[in-house]
Amino acid sequence: MTLDGSPLIWRKSSYSGGAGGNCVEAARLPSGGMALRDSKHPEDAVLHFTRDAWTAFRKALCDGGLF
Q1: Boundaries of domain holding 11
Q2: Cα(24)–Cα(40) distance, rounded to whole angstroms?
Q3: For residue 49, what is the enclosing H or E element?
Q4: Known InterPro entries for this protein (predicted)?
């Protein structure tokens, strides 16, 4: 997948393990935001987060606000 002609570099979550279970991959966007996808179905939908939305999402995770 490319965005604005630049290929995205996907990284698998460190929580995914090596057993091939439920995996999430993330890629930094040129705008500073992030993209997320399911590693089992990389051709399916990709979630795009702006830099501010990604920062708020990570803060909510760290603060326990999403559980």
Answers
A1: 2-62
A2: 9
A3: strand 47-49
A4: DUF397
On whether the CB atoms of residues 1 and 8 are closer than 8 A, the answer is yes
In sign, the C-alpha dihedral spanning 20, 2, 55, 50 is: negative
56, part of any domain = yes
Domain total of the chain: 1
pLDDT in tens, 1-50: 555 556 899 998 776 666 666 788 999 998 899 999 988 888 899 999 99
Q: What is the 3-state secondary structure (H, E, C) of 1-48?
A: CEECCEECCCEECCCCCCCCCCCEEEEECCCCCEEEEECCCCCCCCEE
Note whether residue 67 is domain-resident. no
The answer for residues whose C-beta is within 8 angstroms of residue 67's C-beta and 6 or more apart is none
